[in-house]
Amino acid sequence: MRIFIDTDVLLDVYFAREPHLGTSAKLLDWAEKNPGRAAVSWHGLANLHYLSDQGAEDYIKGLLAFCEVPSTGSEEMIKALELGFKDLEDAMQTSAALKFDAQVIVTRNTRDFRKSPIAVTTPQQFFRQG
């Protein structure tokens, strides 16, 4: 299975946000054991860096050891705009997931991905399903 990990999951682990830390960390452990089968977005990593006090460089480098960052550009941005999401950032995540050929987007924010052409699940549901 190829998965796309939404930024909220990365933030859960980086900031040790409870009650989400355990399941989000488990998802990153799964990704680490399955290198090349998980992706994160370029702009999601930028958001993570921006929100962190110390820049999160080591955390980001660690993620890049096992997570892919799909190349995105004008075509993917146009696709994001065409998806009709309320939140452009979520549409951009979806467009990056499409570029990666992800089978599922893993996020805690499933409500904002209702228009996604890719299946969407929470970290908890991901582990219940398989």
Can you tell me about this structure?
The chain has one domain (3-129): 3-Layer(aba) Sandwich (Rossmann fold), CATH 3.40.50.1010. 52% of the residues lie in helices and 8% in strands. The protein contains seven helices and four strands; from the N terminus they run βααβααααββα. The chain has helices spanning 7-14, 21-33, 42-51, 57-64, 74-82, 88-100, 123-129, and strands at 3-5, 38-39, 104-106, 119-121. Strands 2-1-3-4 form a four-stranded parallel β-sheet. α1 crosses α2 (21-33) and α5 packs across α6 (88-100). The longest helix has 13 residues, at 21-33. The chain is globular, with a radius of gyration of 14 Å. It starts with a strand and ends with a helix.
